[in-house]
């Protein structure tokens, strides 16, 4: 389950790839939508940890345009519901994530991202 | 009493590749259960288990905390990552599994953000080469072969703990006597300024098991810790 909440936390970790290595770009993805329990406290608590632009861009790549380009200052229920859906209910099941800098491809199979590197890529 | 997660969906075939929960798993569950009130008080938003294997431990934490946290689980063994997800589904706890060594692809973004860090490492003393090979092959032996003094893999994580922990973050580590628990505690304080305490210890067969909890020494943590005792 590569949910966008996880995608928002993953960066390329190839040796020497230290700039422009986040966010990873989705490629050839298949997505599934699955309901998750709504928890406003969790969302409010998690909000400061989110890289907003990365989240909005990732959601748009996957065809969801419900989030505003700028992070709103007023947190209302409608916003939290949209955030809940984007962060927790969109699952990337198959495909890959590609580093915008070094182009390393991290495959996603059965919803699990494979972030392992070859021996020579390890820092 | 928090029930042990349901693992009945895992078969002998799974346990050929993935570590089957044993005494070292259960002492960690017991330690977490003992600290349950304290863990809830901290209100973790990000839990991270390194080497999640069957997913038993993260599911147990999920049962304590509910849907108030993100549960990230890394494992270098793809089979383990699949078992972790399956165990989450079985127990209705959403576990986000990532096939990765330690927290490497998460280090940039999780700096100072992990509220609960868990590691039941391969702690069995073996020859160094055996541990390195086991990690390389990312299969069942990687779940126990710990190299000389059993600390080869643990040492690599210990260097990352301070970077990952949030201001009120706590790190639970399973160890055995041969790992030299007092020396681990001293080193974490001297090199990283992290305080610690042994939460539980018990003998199980030939093993003398410990669960050590590490935390920052700053005032907010102190209040939380005092609340616990």
TrEMBL record, chain A:
It comes from the Eukaryota. GO terms for biological process: rRNA (guanine-N7)-methylation; tRNA methylation. GO terms for molecular function: protein heterodimerization activity. InterPro entries: Trm112, Trm112-like. Belongs to the TRM112 family. This is Trm112p-domain-containing protein. PANTHER family: MULTIFUNCTIONAL METHYLTRANSFERASE SUBUNIT TRM112-LIKE PROTEIN, UPF0315 PROTEIN-RELATED. It comes from Gloeophyllum trabeum (strain ATCC 11539 / FP-39264 / Madison 617). It holds the Pfam family Trm112p. CDD domains: Trm112-like. Interacts with TRM9.
Automatic annotation (TrEMBL), chain B:
GO terms for molecular function: nucleic acid binding; protein methyltransferase activity; S-adenosylmethionine-dependent methyltransferase activity. It comes from the Eukaryota. Its main location: nucleus. Keywords: Methyltransferase, Nucleus, S-adenosyl-L-methionine, Transferase. GO terms for cellular component: eRF1 methyltransferase complex; nucleus. InterPro entries: DNA_methylase_N6_adenine_CS (IPR002052), Euk-Arch_PrmC-MTase (IPR052190), PrmC-related (IPR004557), SAM-dependent_MTases_sf (IPR029063), Small_mtfrase_dom (IPR007848). One of its GO terms (biological process) is methylation. PROSITE patterns: N6_MTASE. The keyword Mitochondrion does not apply. CDD domains: AdoMet_MTases. It holds the Pfam family MTS. Belongs to the eukaryotic/archaeal PrmC-related family. PANTHER family: METHYLTRANSFERASE N6AMT1. This is Putative methylase.
